[in-house]
Amino acid sequence: MSDEHTRRARTVTRADVARYAGVSTAVVSYVLNDGPKPVAPLTRERVLDAVKVLGYRPNAAARALSKGSSDMFGMLVVDSRNPFFAQLCHALGEAAAQDGRTLLIVNTDREHTTAADQIHDLTARQIGGLIIADLLTAAEQALVENLGIPVVLINQYAGAVGVPALGADFRDGARRAVEHLVGHGYRSIAFIGSASIFDDRERGWGDALTAAGLPLGARIHAPFSYEGGYQAGIELADAAERPRAAFAASDQVAVGLLAALHARGLRVPEDVAVVSFDGTDAAEYACPPLTTTAQPMAEMAREAIRLLQAGDAEPGYRAFPTALVVRRSCGCE
Amino acid sequence: MSDEHTRRARTVTRADVARYAGVSTAVVSYVLNDGPKPVAPLTRERVLDAVKVLGYRPNAAARALSKGSSDMFGMLVVDSRNPFFAQLCHALGEAAAQDGRTLLIVNTDREHTTAADQIHDLTARQIGGLIIADLLTAAEQALVENLGIPVVLINQYAGAVGVPALGADFRDGARRAVEHLVGHGYRSIAFIGSASIFDDRERGWGDALTAAGLPLGARIHAPFSYEGGYQAGIELADAAERPRAAFAASDQVAVGLLAALHARGLRVPEDVAVVSFDGTDAAEYACPPLTTTAQPMAEMAREAIRLLQAGDAEPGYRAFPTALVVRRSCGCE
């Protein structure tokens, strides 16, 4: 912001711009919004010149303050480089746009700042609601319960006190993925993913093995990243008794796993069969294409936006059923 | 926002909360910011209760309006599902955090709204600067020149009037990638990517072939997506005279291309060698691992943030040199 602007006694309005440019305020709006009506090039130039000279800055924050709400939703996400979160954010953006809202996405960054600070930063922008795709500490949960705007937790495997939460049915989805591997006749099926205190997928893996009368196979806890999947894959490939199949708790982990198995000269599915979880595009274009448990991203996104719009949604948890997408990594043709 | 809140005559302040809870305003702040000092559980409960009863909502938008600036930067990105944009956004978030700023990311959505509207929406949040990773129309360029806050265009291959712009040296990077393929002895090298009116990578491909005295090979214009790369790969695999190698203009396109070549039973690099562009994690974990032209994402991110912080950066364009990362898809061991 220029010094000239901060020295100014009162805020420059669209009417000032119109007066200076000798046009109507509607024409100023057409120029700045790129429509809906066309504006002659010379008139446009005059308006833009006036905007520059007067230092005009359309200010919806002022409007939002007077209205007490706004047309934006905030989104706090753990790491949008993960293909699943990237697609979930996109689905939420689409769902928000259907309702005439824009989504402001902030990557959770617990190194340089606290999640509480980021939540405050976002709500202070006069957003109309907040979606959080991250596991919160107890203090953070207490904070979001008292924000004064609707909050929805997404990608959760359990409910939270005070705010609505939703997520895919992780346990059931994992169980069905592993059942599919059992159906192929594999007897030793490893788990690769995060520990069960953070996540319900390991329990689902155990459910399927127990139901089939099989012993629990190897369990490799890995961070949700390509590198996490890769390191787990090396461990699996080099194991004295190599498992015949593996369930990977995310598509990103599975892509890392495939890279490690290839690096060790193992074939998928002939030597090690793989099923993963998420249903992202990355799974479809993996080598071989991954059989994966698809999360209903568009449906969960629409529900999250609906809950924010409703404003007074009851706290509670809703699990969304998943669907197994069968491709080649499991051994199917 | 509750009806109770909108009926309220004046805004509830932190002092009101402190009075109601019988604590100091500092304690209210510690509870809501999760620190820096600890608060006894019962006191915390009293404060949160007061926040709820009074409908208190910490309002930095009001502060931002009175200060005329804020601690957030906005980011408009064409599609953060593309692994390159996801990593670029993350690098920008890191660079912003180093400076104590938070990055608000908005996906460009030209279906439901105009880019101009989204730019207005973002700037109206009293952000301190705006980064745009998208190609702008002339009207949009005129708009961003007159926003009254620092704007930087990123992922550009040429300069813009009025605002600083930067990007990887697309043409030089593509030229060196194709030179590497020429060095392997391949004589027919295809281009897969967007048309040269949007992008300089096709020109770099042509530069390398011309310099080597080779004819221009097949040129397949494809959207920047997995599916775009896949369709181009099918076209390439089924061509009467199949090229011996291909340069893919992005890692995402290359991953789609690999999937298509595998689907057609072709081996990479034995049947078709591939080099791509971006240097994302997705390239490292592809099958085979992709030789790719790495964009200096962290460096470009730091420069973009520096330009926003400086505030009065001169308009102009800066190209960042790329680095070829050699893996196996090109035919190297």
From TrEMBL, chains A, B:
It comes from the Bacteria. Pfam families: LacI, Peripla_BP_3. Residues 12-67 form the HTH lacI-type domain. GO terms for molecular function: DNA-binding transcription factor activity; transcription cis-regulatory region binding. SMART domains: HTH_LACI (SM00354). Keywords: DNA-binding, Transcription, Transcription regulation. This is LacI family transcriptional regulator.
